[in-house]
Amino acid sequence: MDAGYEAFERMAFYGVASNLVVYLTTQMRQETVPSVRSVNNWTGTVWMTPIAGAYVADAFLGRFWTFTVSSLVYLSGMVLITLAVSLKPLHPQCTAGGDCAPATRQQVAFLYAALYTMAVGAGGTKPNISTFGADQFDDLDAREREVKASFFNWWLFSSFAGGLVAVLVLVYVQEEVGWGVGYTIPTVGLALSLVLFYVGTPFYRHKPVTRSTAAGPARLIGRVLRAAYANRGCPLTGELHEHDKAWYAAAGKRLLLHTEGNFRFLDKAAIREREACTVTEVEEVKLIAGMIVVWLVTLVPCTIWAQVRRMRVIRERAARGPHDTVPMSVFWMLPQYVLLGVGDVFNSVGILEFFYDQSPEGMRSLGTTFFTSGLGVGNFLNSLLVTLVDRATATTTGGSWIGDNLNDSHLDYYYAFLLLLTVANMALFVWVAMRYRYKREFLEDSGAMETENEMVAGGKVKADLPARLPDNTTRDRAYVLE
Q1: Which residue has the higher pLDDT, 143 or 10?
Q2: Domain 2-201+298-435, CATH among 3.20.20.220, 1.20.1250.20, 3.30.450.20, 2.170.150.70
Q3: Can you tell me where the transmembrane regions are (predicted)?
């Protein structure tokens, strides 16, 4: 059910996003560069609003109810967009002589209100539908844990399948049959997918909001940072404060092992004499800090991918005159787009699974927003990059690299600049990846029981734990005894 909704939602989103620049330039009579900037800003907002939706889910409503409310808002936005492109008073009209009036303020306002209604709805659906789907698998069941390992692969497959239908079918229908028909199809599909999703409601597993996140993830992060700062002058004596197994079982949480290396200054928040924070709370904040670092080095690929999508539309639409383009076989463009597609698949699957897996147990909706917000910031950076390059090259070289008339521009220089940016980012990513410390949790077996008795008995844990424990005790992405 979840994957079915994702396919139709991606079909709806890309049905709008893939051709929105074309609609703004040909139907709303806007210029190319402002249209690209507007689409980038809207797309960025779609990918950034999940931060708020994830916070609401993790701290207050839970994933199911946050998704329920947001999906109705999302569907309302799609209905409004369909009306905007279908009803004549809501978009410019052309006379019999071919004269077309520009869009009025009211028409532009209605269209953007519809688009941003859709963006608000996406804020609650994107971070929660994937994590809600993953919640249907029991982490402590070996068979279900194995099935869960492939869940994100199929999830991304359904997402890309929906996007493929949008690009190959809906874009054609919009331009050749009609914009109204092209937007009605994904709107109806989205509504049907919601009906199918809610049919399965009695069979879903619902994870409640845990005690630690009921007050909000921001409060936990702030408390650990304040405690670490307050204890900055205290030496690490070798013992850190931690609750016992029974406390975590009652709280519905998982016990995290202490890690050394990165962000060691945060360990002072768990000094046993102060008892301000536990080791698990400190480790949760360490996880978030590490994810932020990884997130930063994923922004350039997100920016480049946004550039490729938008510049493709400009290349196809911005040449002027009937003889301005040279006929070119599609096979000249096939290798690079195949490589970009393969790279995007590996990038998306890997990043989404990484952020879900490394998130603290009670913040997994918020954790997946590292993936969506990266795409959002990438679109904003794309908009900024287009503006800066356009202005800089127009004044220093006598003509913009990405002007309205691309035959007078230099896209070759622009893409060479993006290549250099990507190579530098790849080197930085490798450096960060080699130093990242994965989450470590208890396994439910005899080794874990023995290790827990050694390290957690009496409510304290050794600060100088060995970096590597026995293979039957812990492993990366393991599951803790509860």
Answers
A1: 10
A2: 1.20.1250.20
A3: 64-85, 152-173, 179-199, 287-308, 337-356, 413-434
